[in-house]
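User: Some background: our group keeps a shared notebook of sequences we're curious about, and every so often someone picks one and asks for a predicted structure to add to the entry. Today it's my turn. The entry only has the sequence so far, pasted here. Could you supply the structure so I can complete it?
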Amino acid sequence: MSLYKIYTALFLFAFTASASAQKIKPNKSEKLIKRAINSKAPSFYKDDLLINKITEEVIDGKFIRLDSASYHYDNNEHLDSIVFFKWKDDAWMKFQKSFYKYHSNGVRLEYFYQIYKSNNWFSQRKWEYTYDNNFNQTVQEQFRWAGGKWHINNQNRYTYDSNNLLTEIIWRNFSSDKWNDGYLDKYTYDTNKRLIERYTQTRLFSPNNEWMNLKKTSYTRNPNGKVLETEEIIWANEQWVPFKKTINEYDHHGNVVLEIEQKSPDSINYQNYTKEEFQFNKENLLTNVYSSEWKDNKWTFTLSRTYEYDDRQNQKYMLAKKWSSTKSEWVDNHQIFYNFQLSNPPSNKPTTELNFSVSPNPNDGKFRIELDERQSEKVKIKIYSLEGKFVGQYSIEAHEKESNLDLSHLNNGTYILSITLKDAVGRQKIVIQK
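Assistant: Of course. Here's the predicted structure to add to the notebook entry:
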């Protein structure tokens, strides 16, 4: 394929993949910064529900209301609907509404949204989800509303191996009364069940409707499973050529503190493109993000974001600033306010025990947590003092079985270690003696 067709196919693939990724699994609250491999978004408290957010932007030097969203939940605290508003003529005006339906076990079965105009709601798009016996998503179908009924538009089909690891995704478009394959993703894992390669093919622009090479994405990890480097190469002129590379650095808690993206304009050498620096507080909550771009052979600031939290570690505020090259200072750009409500007390929820071990215990602040069984999703770890004060949060990545923690900065004493995965909970006391 020509480079033009390659870039067109990549653009369409990125659009469809990002739209699909946002619909796969239900979340009680939205994440502000989304990363496919390393999530740097602040985590909302497990038992609190986001009920509304308000965004304001700076116009003529003042913060002016821009939009807002109201979140509603069912009796099981699954996100039931979101109503979006825009600020117009000194009042909040409805403009979009989203609805969600779930299986009794909590997996999402349906999502659709409507827009508001001329004092009426009009359906736009709908997504339906199908799962296997292990509750892995196997099919996602997108519909569009036209002529008073839903019409199927496209479909993703997912395949898994015996370990419930995703191995293949086929994206298909429905047109001219038939399905037309568009993209094929194949996933490869190492012996630790960590993703090491994503291989993408396409039938777009294929003269014989054959699968053609499009892109390969490889992941290089450190011993703890964190991704150090992600490289994308594309198929052009009958060979694989460099396209994009992302380099990550982490602190001793496993938080990503630096992400540099490089691109290859000549398909030979990589050049710096963007950089993001992340700062965390002592409780491992993200507090600042600084974005830069490579310009005139040096890094130049573009955007900064500052996060604030309430006493339950819910993110309550985000302030974004743009860098003014003329003033050489940060200038306010927009801000977002979040409000939460406590959910039902945990004692009222059905829970199962999540078994794990800690060794050594007592310890000098450095120890290993090992799960009895690997989990298909990330396991959250939170540390509390005996008085119930939140100390810090960590995690065990999906498909990993253990994690090494360093709490040597804490004072000697006894702490409560709590791990959670959905409604499964495990707790142990740890003793730090230095």
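Suggested note for the entry: The chain has two domains: 3-342, 351-432. The CA atoms of residues 124 and 159 lie 28 Å apart.
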